[in-house]
Design brief:
single chain; 184 residues; mainly beta; Neuraminidase; four-stranded antiparallel sheet; 18 strands; globular
Length: 184
């Protein structure tokens, strides 16, 4: 996704974005009538042409913890960064009671193995105080999950989970669902 400008309409202003390169896998959220862009990455794995199992070739990736908000004057404002860089969170968020909740994602590659590292925390960004906190851990690390909220429960379903408690690298794609009661 390119966020160098939002509008192809000449009557609307073209709004520049904090990162001037191809930026993807971030959370784009409208909360309190403001647009927030959270995390994401630059660069991604590229599919090997003709691979029957969709193998990918590694590319250099930069994972971001940056948080930006588009203000009323159509200027990007830096907000406090996430507790750690996080990507693959496009649908892994929900706004509840003036807070953004984000489940899972991916962070920077392992420094030795260079493998992707999945995230197992549930993050909360309080829109009133502009502060981040970690409010819990999921039963396993997961990326590209889908998050929902209903009747006091935060849900996540599907995505690509880790290899196990001792290995944060991605393994199988799952279709299970998990929930936790939010204490707000």
């Amino acid at each position: 996704m390119w966020l160098s400008g939002f509008s192809a309409n000449p009557l609307l202003p073209n709004v520049g974005y904090g990162h001037r390169t191809k930026h993807e896998s971030m959370a784009c959220i409208v909360a309190n009538d403001k647009l927030l862009v959270i995390g994401g990455q630059e660069g991604d794995f590229v599919a090997k042409p003709g691979s029957p199992i969709f193998k990918c070739v590694r590319k250099n990736e930069i994972v971001y913890s940056n948080v930006y908000m588009l203000d009323d004057g159509l200027k990007w404002r830096d907000l406090p960064p996430m507790p750690k860089p996080n990507s693959h969170i496009e649908f892994a968020w929900k706004v509840v009671n003036n807070s953004v909740f984000i489940a899972g994602g991916t962070t920077e590659k392992h420094p030795v193995t260079k493998k992707m590292v999945l995230v197992g925390e549930i993050f909360r960004f309080n829109l009133g105080t502009l502060e981040w906190s970690v409010i819990g851990r999921m039963p396993f690390r997961i990326k590209t999950t889908l998050v929902g909220f209903w009747n006091g429960w935060l849900y996540f379903t599907s995505g690509q989970r880790d290899k196990g408690p001792n290995d944060p690298s991605p393994k199988k794609v799952v279709g299970c669902m998990w929930r936790t009661k939010l204490q707000l």
